[in-house]
Structure formats: structure tokens, C-alpha cells
Amino acid sequence: METVTLRAARLVLTIACLVMGSVRASDHASSAISPDEALRRLEAGNERFASGKTEHPAQDAHRRQELISGQSPFAIVLGCSDSRVPPEIVFDQGLGEIFDVRVAGNVLDPATLASLEYAVDHLGSRLILILGHEKCGAVQAALSLSKGASAGSPDLDSLVHSIQLNVRGDHLDDPLLRQPVRHQVDGVAQDLLKRSNLIRKKVDAGEVRVVRGIYALSSGRVAFWDDSLASSDSR
Ligand SMILES: [Zn+2]
């Protein structure tokens, strides 16, 4: 015969297991969303935005309540700080869906890289989008700054120099700067896989995908391109 105390102890243990199990499941809910499905969601949201059919999903009080217990964003976007390219708006997404890392020129530094690793390792996000945009001021500064000149401060110089490494040989002849912006995105994607063992291992295992994109200011559309080069370049 079980004592009342023993039964009570078992009940507490069962409840504890259920609660812990549900927390774990919710913490890693986004792992169930494959990289391809995550990309499809971004593409569909951008199509709604560009065609004027936005739904503004998941932005109400109910959604805020859902997210009190935690977040599991289905995608990570490393984008530019430019006020014209906020990821939630251009991909028509809501709260808790995109883990944003925004910095001028979408450059990679220790803090941005750590942020990407955190979202992959702790939040379970499986798609990383490196997102550049037309007429990026940071890329323009990198192309315009003559050798030996300063961008205005040591930190601005550091940011601009990191972009210059990726846009060598490019020119300012295209006012939209599409080619140098794409080169900057390519360089950041490749650098990411070289510098982060954590992310590269998951990419090589097919658990995480890195894609690249450029946002068109006029149409509002994001053109994505293949990520296979980034993976092979890392080896
Ligand atoms: Zn920019």
C-alpha cells in the first residue's frame, strides 16, 4: 500500500515532468520548421508586402500573451539598420517570428556573430538570411572613401574597412549599388561560415541553411540567391 505522502510525491514528480517537457517543446518549437519552410514563409510574406496585400499577422494582445513564456523565431535576419528595410514589415511577419540582427551594412562583428549563434543554438532557428539592400549608405561609403581617408571616427573606419574587403574592384557607376551590395552579402555569408564553428557544423549537417537576399527599394521585393557557394567556400 502506498502512503499518501508517496502518492503525493509521485504526483508532484509527474506534474514537474509534464511542465518541464512542455517548456522544452516550446523552447524548440521552431526546430520543427525546416529551413525550406522558413524561406517559403519569408517569400510569401514579401510577396504580400510587395503586392500591397499585407496581413500584419501576430501583432495583437493574444500574440503578446503567447510570447510571455518564450520565443521561437522561425528565421534569423542579419540586415542593415537602414530605416527603409525593417524585416518584420518587408516580410509581413509579426511578433516572435523573426530574430533581427541589424547593423549598418549588415556587417559581421563579434556581437552580430554571437547574436546569430545565440538564435541558432538557444532559440532553435534554422534559417539565416543575410539581407542587403539597394543604395546601402554603408556600402556607398566603403566605395567612396579614398585610401588613407577617415570615415569620421575609428569605429566608422572599422565598419567601412570591413565592407571594403568585400567590394574590392566594384564601382559607383550603378546608382542602386546592386553589385557591390551583393558582394558585401556574399562576403558576410562566407565569413560567417568561416568564423562560426557552431553554425557551420549545423549547416553541414543540413540542420541550418544560410540564404542571401537583396531588397529593391522601389518594388519592395527581395531577390534571394543560392547559398551553396557559402557552404563550399568554408571548406
Ligand atoms: Zn544599408
Description:
The chain is α/β, with parallel strands linked by helices and 235 residues long. The protein folds into two domains: 1-32; 33-233, Beta-carbonic Anhydrase, Chain A (3-Layer(aba) Sandwich), CATH 3.40.1050.10. 49% of the residues lie in helices and 12% in strands. The protein has helices at 4-27, 35-50, 61-66, 87-90, 110-123, 137-144, 154-164, 178-195, 197-204, 228-233, and strands at 75-79, 98-102, 127-133, 209-215, 222-225. β1, α4 and β2 form a beta-alpha-beta unit. α8 (178-195) crosses α9. The longest helix is centred in the first third of the chain and has 24 residues, at 4-27. The termini are far apart. Mean pLDDT is 87; it is low at 1-6, 8-28 and 229-235.
CATH architecture of the largest domain: 3-Layer(aba) Sandwich
Could you name the CATH topology of the largest domain? Beta-carbonic Anhydrase, Chain A
Q: By CATH's scheme, which homologous superfamily of the largest domain applies?
A: Carbonic anhydrase
Helical residue percent band: 40-55%
User: How many helix segments?
Assistant: 10
CATH top level class name of the largest domain: Alpha Beta
Please summarize the sheet with the most strands. Answer: 5 strands, mixed
